[in-house]
């Protein structure tokens, strides 16, 4: 983990058909804008070097499409493989967040985000929520609002199943960027607090 206040944020994601990958890039972009060093890790092809990158990160943002009401099978395989880290509490006190994408407006996305938050809790990680009020919930609001799907736990996106990755909704991309920025900023606050605490306890 970083000792200075510049955080390292890892984006650990799976995308079967490229839509969620667009959001992973947006989270990474937002985190970089927020001052973090960023690594993206496609979990279905994860290497030993990338496991090391996750171990070294201050925050890990989990991302997956919603398949059958939960994260994809590939993401679940990755989650099971993290049990090696669980045994040694290797990820304890890292920060965590999550994003998902589905074909339907709801599509049971919340369940995927809840799965991510439980995975984080099992590791003793501290969950960072989206930190946005819902958009698109008044007569004057628009589908182009940030957080247009009105999710609090993480970033959610909806992509029509006959649309390609280049048609992921711009508001959902912006919402994912927001999440990345927020994770970077909140992680920097925690790192600064740890540094300050270490200074007064020596
Ligand atoms: C096996 C499978 C299961 C799916 N299950 C859901 C679902 O439960 N809810 C939903 O709204 N969309 C569901 N979808 C649609 C995907 O979430 C949607 O197409 C998404 O954009 C795919 O993201 P990806 O390109 O990153 O894989 C499913 C798609 C597949 C292939």
From TrEMBL:
Coiled-coil annotated spans: none
MF annotations from Gene Ontology: FMN binding; NAD(P)H dehydrogenase (quinone) activity
Flavodoxin-like domain mapped to chain residues: 9-154
Designated name of the protein: Flavodoxin family protein
Organism: Kitasatospora camelliae
Gene Ontology cellular component annotations, sorted alphabetically: membrane
Family annotation (PANTHER family): FLAVODOXIN-RELATED PROTEIN WRBA-RELATED, FLAVOPROTEIN-LIKE PROTEIN YCP4-RELATED
Domain of life: Bacteria
Pfam family, one: FMN_red
């Amino acid at each position: 983990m970083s000792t200075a206040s510049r955080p390292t944020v890892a984006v650990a994601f799976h995308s079967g058909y490229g839509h969620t990958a667009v959001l992973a890039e947006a989270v990474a972009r937002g985190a970089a804008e927020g001052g973090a060093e960023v690594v993206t890790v496609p979990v279905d092809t994860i290497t030993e070097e990338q496991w090391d990158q996750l171990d070294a990160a201050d925050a890990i943002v989990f991302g997956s499409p919603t398949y059958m009401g939960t994260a994809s099978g590939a993401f679940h395989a990755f989650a099971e493989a993290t049990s090696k880290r669980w045994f040694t509490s290797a990820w304890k006190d890292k920060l965590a967040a999550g994003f998902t994408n589905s074909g339907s407006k709801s599509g049971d996305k919340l369940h995927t985000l809840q799965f991510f938050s439980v995975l984080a809790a099992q590791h003793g990680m501290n969950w960072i929520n989206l930190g946005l009020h819902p958009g698109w919930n008044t007569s004057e609001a628009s589908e182009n609002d940030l957080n247009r799907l009105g999710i609090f736990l993480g970033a959610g996106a909806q992509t029509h199943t006959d649309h390609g990755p280049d048609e992921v909704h711009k508001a959902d991309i912006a919402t994912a960027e927001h999440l990345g920025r927020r994770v970077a900023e909140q992680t920097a606050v925690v790192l600064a607090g740890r540094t300050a605490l270490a200074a007064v306890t020596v």
